[in-house]
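Postdoc handover notes: sequence design on the structure in folder B. Input tokens:
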């Protein structure tokens, strides 16, 4: 039976924080229902209630008009609901088959029938068009493949309602396409799908209807998403007009400051050459695996340099030493910010200020505290970081707000000459993206070289003065802003 999902006045509070305030909307069978909203708007909390992880403080959830109360994830699964969370839930040491059928293995004469289990999984994988070895261990699979395993598991548990929380945030271009195909297939078989994303293009191509959240409240449900202008969606999400989110301003470029010559690490067949002028914003585009992050880590000294040189204002930057790169004025804000940068037990303010502290050493303790508080408040306000105050422990913030805090740490650095941002807006809402693009421009206007690595093509085209495209660990083309169309960049990124 196809399922029809209703949220009726659902509320949830955490100490001092209202995450959801009386949210009501319906999601219909055979549709993809998008959830949109700024970071911290309450989207993930709603999915955690749907998946039985949290109990609501008030309101009801109804499946096929029957009220449901879940005390655990197992209760939700029994009611035909599966939630694919941002942090995937699997056992890395077990195989695809074992993960999918965990606790539900077919038995024969009282013994587990492994061959039958394998056949069942293989059949279901092929039905949903996923090519995976049922005997592969999850630890050997890519994130995209692990996600496919979770989807297959949901289907095999007979889930009729499947919810996705930012499923493409760690997927490549081609992997995302596979996921979209799967979601469309599930829609065509009558499943009810809930889909959270900050990528508007993706939501438009996938969703039939959508609900917009702001500050824990439902703002509106649009029954036909395709008919809603982009400006309206953005306005409803951020509560203000935002006509040009990139806000690109041309600026006079300076002399060449950063020169990279024949830079080669252990995975690069040749070496990379490029240069960046003062005040220039260079966008690096490429498919995941093209070698962009590796090149940046090499430039920053985090990976071993086998050949080549990096010159900043004509002075060689020592190899293999991030402290030496920082000393020279090169900063890298890494892609996996949360893993590398988060101090989970520390406050928002401490997380923002930790890197700047070395410049503030000579300032007296009280002055430093004031300066740090002011700096934290500036970024909380500017990036619209949703937190009760600057002293809140970062671990209590929503995923996107944690990203904003860590990004603020890098943007707060005032002494840099080269700022490298790897996927700076991943998981970040559209209002804060706009602020991040403004800060990037301001940093460039001060004469700094800015390098932005991004998998979001509209972002690269929107903010960069020049686009460098990478393919197979090499720079496959360089396009000026005027020549950098979507087709031109994709041709360079994809060509055989
Ligand atoms: N366990 C918790 N303790 C305290 N506050 C929490 C907890 N979980 C969520 N919150 C708060 O509830 C609010 C809603 O968070 P939620 O994760 O639902 O937002 P979201 O819309 O999914 O954001 P994002 O787009 O960043 O993922 C935020 O202010 C968040 O800080």
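Designed sequence:
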């Amino acid at each position: 039976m196809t399922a029809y999902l209703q949220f009726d006045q659902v509320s949830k509070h955490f100490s001092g924080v209202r995450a959801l305030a009386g949210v009501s909307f319906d999601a219909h069978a055979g549709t993809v229902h998008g959830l949109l909203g700024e970071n911290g708007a309450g989207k993930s909390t709603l999915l955690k209630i749907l998946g039985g992880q949290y109990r609501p403080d008030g309101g009801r959830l109804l499946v096929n008009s029957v009220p449901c109360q879940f005390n655990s994830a197992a209760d939700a699964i029994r009611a035909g609901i599966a939630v694919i969370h941002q942090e995937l839930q699997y056992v890395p040491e077990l195989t695809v088959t074992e993960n999918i059928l965990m606790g539900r293995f077919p038995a024969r004469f009282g013994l587990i029938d492994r061959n039958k289990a394998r056949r069942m999984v293989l059949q279901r994988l092929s039905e949903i068009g996923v090519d995976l070895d049922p005997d592969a261990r999850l630890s050997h699979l890519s994130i995209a493949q692990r996600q496919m395993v979770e989807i297959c598991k949901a289907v095999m548990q007979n889930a009729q309602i499947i919810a996705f929380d930012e499923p493409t945030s760690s997927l490549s271009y081609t992997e995302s396409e596979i996921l979209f195909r799967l979601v469309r297939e599930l829609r065509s078989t009558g499943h009810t799908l809930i889909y959270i994303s900050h990528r508007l293009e993706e939501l438009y191509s996938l969703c039939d209807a959508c609900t917009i959240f702001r500050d824990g409240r439902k703002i509106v449900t649009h029954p036909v998403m395709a008919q809603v202008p982009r400006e309206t969606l953005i306005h409803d999400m951020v509560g203000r007009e935002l006509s040009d989110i990139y806000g690109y301003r041309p600026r006079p470029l300076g002399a060449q400051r950063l020169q990279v010559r024949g830079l080669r690490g252990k995975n690069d067949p040749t070496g990379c050459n490029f240069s960046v002028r003062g005040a220039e914003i260079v966008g690096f585009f490429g498919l995941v695996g093209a070698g962009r992050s590796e090149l940046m880590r090499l430039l920053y000294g985090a990976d071993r340099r086998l050949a080549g040189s990096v010159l900043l204002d004509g002075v060689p930057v020592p190899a293999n030493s991030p402290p030496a790169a920082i000393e020279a004025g090169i900063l890298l804000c890494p892609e996996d910010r949360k893993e590398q940068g988060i101090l989970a037990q520390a406050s928002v303010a401490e997380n923002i200020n930790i890197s700047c502290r070395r410049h503030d050493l000579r300032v007296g303790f009280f002055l430093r505290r004031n300066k740090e508080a002011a700096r934290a408040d500036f970024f909380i306000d500017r990036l619209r970081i949703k937190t009760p105050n600057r002293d809140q422990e970062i671990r209590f913030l929503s995923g996107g707000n944690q990203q904003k805090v860590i990004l603020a740490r890098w943007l707060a650095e005032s002494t840099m000459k080269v700022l490298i941002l790897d996927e700076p807006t991943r998981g970040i809402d559209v209002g804060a993206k706009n602020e991040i693009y403004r800060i990037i421009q301001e940093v460039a206007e001060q004469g700094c070289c800015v390098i932005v690595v991004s998998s979001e093509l509209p972002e690269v085209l929107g903010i960069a003065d020049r686009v460098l495209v990478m393919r197979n660990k090499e720079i496959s083309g360089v396009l000026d802003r005027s020549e950098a169309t979507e087709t031109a960049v994709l041709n360079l990124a994809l060509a055989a």
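Context for whoever picks this up: The radius of gyration is 24 Å. Don't rerun without checking with the PI first.
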